[in-house]
Specification:
Elements (H helix, E strand, L loop, with lengths): L5 E14 L2 E14 L3 E5 L6 H8 L7 E6 L2 E2 L5 H11 E5 L10 H13 L4 H13 L15 H13 L5 E5 L7 H18 L2 E5 L3 H4 L4 E6 L2 E2 L2
Parallel strand pairs: 3-8, 3-9, 6-7, 7-8
Antiparallel strand pairs: 1-2, 1-4, 4-5, 9-10
Helix pairs in contact: 3-4, 3-5, 4-5, 5-6
Amino acid sequence: MSDMNNILQLSDVRKVYGNDGITTEVLHGIDLTLQRGEFTALIGPSGSGKSTLLNIIGLLEQPTSGVIRVQGQETGTLADEELTRLRGRSIGFVFQFHHLIPAFTALENVMMPLMLEAGRPTPQQRERATALLTRVGLADRLDFKPAKLSGGQQQRVAIARALAADPPLILADEPTGNLDTAAADEIFKLLYEVNQESGTTFLIITHDPRLAHRCRRVVELVDGRIVG
């Protein structure tokens, strides 16, 4: 595929922590490309650098060296405000713990990224959020607050929220890690369906080999290096 299909490119990305002469290199020259429509699992043992890599891909943390391009945009020279805008329009996040706002309804939680962008709620945002919650099977839960939803339902709200701004890339960090097997299977199926229907690229961190090997590509990280 051409570079135009590359949603994400990492070239020789390294991350070093520490100072005063005592340093630890956590990521050792990572090269990784994700193309439009990929459905990829990122696996590796605890301490392998997965969370650091995810933070760097998500533009939440800067690498020590190397090049990152998101939709062809090199990020190394961008100011914080420019990084925030690029992240907001290009990347959606789904976490193990849903991080929903307890005082807000499901509909308001999904509208939040859109309201932050526009500065105020609009009928178009409400329509978009309603459509997404309907898409994830929660049309009858729009006005429910998180405490009134099951764990699986809360994760569906989080997925709808991640999709609100229609980002080309979704980063999912252990999205089924806090769910029982049946709910985990439902959430995984939903992510896959969204990928198939919309062409959204997914990078899913998971410790569950059963789910990882249902992805179309598996990237393994060991001791800060991609090994497979």
